[in-house]
Amino acid sequence: MQKDAINSIVILTGAGISAESGLATFRGPDGLWEGHRVEDVCTPEALARDAVLVHRFYDERRAKLAQVSPNAAHQALARLDARWAGDLLIVTQNVDDLHERAGAKRLLHMHGELKSALCAACGEAAPWSDALPPASACARCNEPRLRPDIVFFGEMPYRMDRIYEALENADLFVSIGTSGAVYPAAGFVQTARAVGARTIELNLEPSAGSALFDETRLGPATRLVPDLVDALLA
Ligand code: APR
Question: Does the predicted model carry a pTM greater than 0.90?
Answer without folding.
Answer: yes
